[in-house]
Amino acid sequence: MGKAGESIPDEEWERFLREAEAGTAGAPAEPSARARMVARRLAEGDRPEPWRSHQPARRRRGKGWYAIGLMAAVGLLVVALDPGRVAGWLAGEGGESTPLATESERPDQPPTTQAPARRGTLDEPFKGSPAARWSDGTDGIGLPEAKATGWMSERQVARTLEKTRDFLDASSLDPGVLRGERPKKAIASINPHQRDVHDFLTTAFRSPSRENDPLLLFSRFDKAEVRLVGDVVKVRGRITFREGERGAVEVVTDVTYVYPVVRAAAGSDEVVRTIVRREVVMSWDDPAKIVTEPGTFSLVSYRVDATNAGCDTFTGYLTPEFGAERATASPGNGDRVDPYDRSKSVETRMREGGDEGCGRATRS
After folding, report:
1. What separation, in Å, do the N-terminal and C-terminal C-alpha atoms of the chain show?
2. Which of 215, 270, 302, 354 reaches 20 to 30 Å from 197, CA-CA?
3. Domain total in the chain
């Protein structure tokens, strides 16, 4: 992949700067405020390997819970673990040893489930999980064939898709970020002229809350509490693209990450898994029409579901729970949810299941 600015022709960028500085008619518009994160506080349920979902509203202009411009507000839904189904599950016909091909389109059904009691171990942290057949890291993210779209040539689209995958790596797979460090590289990829987004991120890392939660975009664990098992995160998902507003290239990502963790204390060997699914839409804008910087994108929308990540907790970290905590939790009262089911979008699942109460994940 080339330098960050290579995807924008020099002459186009120079023209953009001249027109923006001169304030001429047709000069690029500065991105309007796009981000206002809102999370609805819900009750904690039984066996809280929770499923937290953030769903943006449709694009609209307004105030309060809705953002101005492309970025939408987000709500919160949590799903606790169904105590009857936390035991390990086989990943489907062919067993755990048969790797799956990279996902190129939305599957039409969830992974096959079987019910032998098999939990992950330190040597086999994905044992008993559909993720055992998934690819490692960004190898599990399918990229489409590039073609000229909007203001970009085929070559520029190809580089943009690579940069998009780099953002997913920097936000959800970087070892330092997973240990709780600030995701500086990922943040640097977001258009600095999207002030609401950057203001939100500043607040989210300084004082995380349900309204300002860095987990909407980034995966982080408190290294004082838990640690990852090994150096592999299992990933399954895909990236697609289309022409967006003002000729932008709008890239849609839908990716599920499975993180095996143990307590940070020396000698800990109880392995649990945190499962995070993110749908992030980003706009790679035409610099002749939108004020942006080379190699950066504007956030359009995002939805997040997380299982065993903390139920109604807003610490800025994914907070998985282990057997002792689950044993004393109150029962969940929502619908059962399979965190490995990628056959429905997050929006569809939330619409069908509603956003009240605490649901139950059927497996981990």
Report:
1. 36
2. 354
3. 1
